[in-house]
Amino acid sequence: xxxxxxxxxxxxxxxxxxxxxxxxxxxxxxxxxxxxxxxxxxxxxxxxxxxxxxxxxxxxxxxxxxxxxxxxxxxxxxxxxxxxxxxxxxxxxxxxxxxxxxxxxxxxxxxxxxxxxxxxxxxxxxxxxxxxxxxxxxxxxxxxxxxxxxxxxxxxxxxxxxxxxxxxxxxxxxxxxxxxxxxxxxxxxxxxxxxxxxxxxxxxxxxxxxxxxxxxxxxxxxxxxxxxxxxxxxxxxxxxxxxxxxxxxxxxxxxxxxxxxxxxxxxxxxxxxxxxxxxxxxxxxxxxxxxxxxxxxxxxxxxxxxxxxxxxxxxxxxxxxxxxxxxxxxxxxxxxxxxxxxxxxxxxxxxxxxxxxxxxxxxxxxxxxxxxxxxxxxxxxxxxxxxxxxxxxxxxxxxxxxxxxxxxxxxxxxxxxxxxxxxxxxxxxxxxxxxxxxxxxxxxxxx
Length: 447
Known about the structure:
Layout: E1 2-6, E2 18-23, H1 26-36, E3 41-46, E4 55-57, E5 60-63, E6 69-72, H2 79-87, E7 93-96, H3 107-120, E8 124-126, H4 130-137, H5 139-146, E9 155-158, H6 160-163, H7 165-168, H8 176-185, E10 192-196, E11 206-208, H9 211-218, E12 227-231, E13 236-244, E14 250-251, E15 255-257, E16 272-274, H10 283-297, E17 301-310, E18 313-320, H11 325-334, H12 340-347, E19 361-367, H13 372-379, E20 384-392, E21 402-409, H14 415-426, H15 433-445
Parallel strand pairs: 1-3, 1-7, 3-6, 7-8
Antiparallel strand pairs: 2-20, 4-5, 9-12, 10-11, 10-12, 13-14, 13-15, 13-17, 15-16, 16-19, 17-18, 19-21, 20-21
């Protein structure tokens, strides 16, 4: 079977300004796939910039696999042209690997459009569809769509032009839409999250503790786009992933997130630990709801889900239908190459990764950027599964410089702390005090 993995990029920045380093090298990961699936032939197609599928340094691919073919795509190519180049590789099936992007997390929309074009050419695909991708991109659409499957926070969408309608329309004496917005906000429990409906990650997110604070914000010059005001569900923060295709889904047990003092997760500092299988959380109920959502919306590949547990109830916060740090973390729990998630969706697997017996304990943490030599040495530890380091010199994006590490153990959960201590001894300063404290708290609390 000939399988083409493809990616896309919407980044305007070259790889000379943004550098991503992986351990294992992406080339080694692709070679491992070649060994794991001898009856499959793999081709990898994507652009150099903004892509998670190549090892790139100084604007060039710095390491290539021995037996897997690379096809370079131009950044910004249309879906039609991209599909044509992929079709020239004569795949039996094409698999999308959508990556995250800032300031707009819309790469899954592009890979979904490419999938539609491939399907028109009679080529089977694994890719989340445009309905799911657009809904996930727009946080308010997400809230509306996904609350029909899992409980979601109460909130309101605020259309910027309508909210300020009287300023551009002298004939409007009373802005009824504005009156409606304030009426609904009074019904929401505080504190609330005020955020742009389209921003990636935590960009532009503010927590406000009173109606007066929100009212002041909305009536100020700071209100300059469509936004949503949403109840901050204050509870325990979790995430999970849904892997597979229709008829072959696994909804993994949740992974616990550490939170800031404001009670939210910071994607650049949060520690993640799992799986959490304590029966008192009754996760099997939300597993069924997420499985129903996956089947109804026809998820394909990987979908990351953020959840909050409060007072015996599960709430969905957002979904990301793409590759993320949770993908490598859940793959470490599963004990498999993260790319196997996609191939096993095609070929099938005997393991049900929704079950604890098929999972290991894993921890995901962030640290400051290290040298390439340090990363290679660090990956030499048998408990270190994945490392991804992102460094950028793009003005205004320096905040996203970090190194993400995933470790795992097939022993008891306490072994995670032993591994952290072992890494700290070998690499002084590697594990910050905050990481150790957050990891210790999660490991002690969750079963």
